[in-house]
Amino acid sequence: MYDSQRVTREAQQLASRYEICRLSEIGKSWCGRSISMLQIGKGSRPVLYAGAFHGMEWITAPLLLHFCRRLCQAWESGLTVYRLPIRPLLEEITLFCIPMVNPDGVEICLHGPASAGEYAAAIKKSGQQARWQANARGVDINHNFDAGWKKLRQLEIESGITGPGPTRYGGDFPGSERETTALISLCRQVPFSLVMAFHSQGEEIYWQYGEHTPAISHTLANTFSMVSGYRVAHPEPIASMGGFKDWFIETFHRPGFTIEVGKGRNPLPFGQLPAIESKVFPIMACGLTDWKKHQIGGSL
């Protein structure tokens, strides 16, 4: 199990072991847990990968950590990753990686309500802790971004979601949560060329949001599909707005993607991780390189 303590520990180990890797904190959760970020590379073009927005989807955290480790090892050894020469690549780009956006939600899913401190009673009362997606306050982080939030709130109400709970409650207002504001602040400070949000499950790629979706996004999504076998798709209406990639596209008019990894019922078993990596690592590798071909985004 990859809880927040293990993620923090492994991130620290990577940063102490490899010169190309640096560790920082973009904020803290409501329960005071660190939202850790790794930076790998020396380049002027930044890319952001983030995972574990939802408690039950904790498998995306080791997925991201393992990819970071692969990059660091290839840098040190001079080897390639999916035929990419990593040393020159990491001289041109910098990967910013947040393995666990929602550490409280992961802790609740893995260790139960007691891990949520002052919020424990409400979570226990819900009886849904084993399938918890939200943060400690019962807000779904991927419904809390200011991208169609008012329309999404109405869809939530029509679906019977009227307040805090295990999933799909978007909060009292967009950006109400510490985890959300930490990501927003980071993206306003760093001009990311491209962002990817990793979720589970479904083996699908979501690439579109509104009129500001860059024309190149569909081409990139098709490339990711080709190397992975994942399907380019559109989410159901209640999942089609209010998310991180939606807000990023709407705000910066740059490519943002949601990658739904694996297949099955959340939480996916840890034993599925090697099969997920074999399909998703090529997407991650492409995300670091296609900007060179298509000249998207900004620079540091």
Topology diagram in text:
Layout (H helix, E strand, L loop, with lengths): L3 H14 L3 E8 L5 E8 L3 E7 L8 H18 L2 E2 L2 E2 H7 E6 L4 H9 L8 H7 L22 H10 L19 H12 L4 E7 L3 E3 L9 H13 L2 E2 L11 H9 L3 E6 L11 H22 L6
Parallel strand pairs: 3-6, 3-7, 7-10, 8-9
Antiparallel strand pairs: 1-2, 2-6, 4-5, 8-10
Helix pairs in contact: 1-2, 8-10
Provide tags for this entry.
single chain, 300 residues, alpha/beta, eight-stranded mixed sheet, 40% helix, globular
Summarize this, please?
With 300 residues, the chain is an alpha/beta fold.
Cα distance, first to last residue? 36 Å
Integer average pLDDT: 95
Percent helix among the residues?
40-55%
Order of helices and strands: HEEEHEEHEHHHHEEHEHEH
DSSP helical segment count: 10
Low-confidence spans: pLDDT under 50, at least 5 residues? 294-300
Strand fraction equals 15-25%
Q: Please give the radius of gyration in angstroms.
A: 18 Å
Q: How would you sum up the major sheet?
A: 8 strands, mixed
Cross-sheet strand order for the largest sheet: 1-2-6-3-7-10-8-9
| Shape type | globular
Secondary-structure-derived class:
alpha/beta
The number of E-state strands comes to 10
Please provide a written account of the structure.
The protein is of the alpha/beta class. The protein contains 10 helices and 10 strands. It has helices at residues 4-17, 60-77, 86-92, 103-111, 120-126, 149-158, 178-189, 216-228, 244-252, 273-294; strands at residues 21-28, 34-41, 45-51, 80-81, 84-85, 93-98, 194-200, 204-206, 231-232, 256-261. It has an 8-stranded mixed β-sheet with strand order 1-2-6-3-7-10-8-9, sandwiched between helices. Helix 1 (4-17) runs parallel beside helix 2 (60-77) and helix 8 packs antiparallel against helix 10 (273-294). The longest helix is centred in the C-terminal third of the chain and has 22 residues, at 273-294. The protein is globular and about 55 Å long.
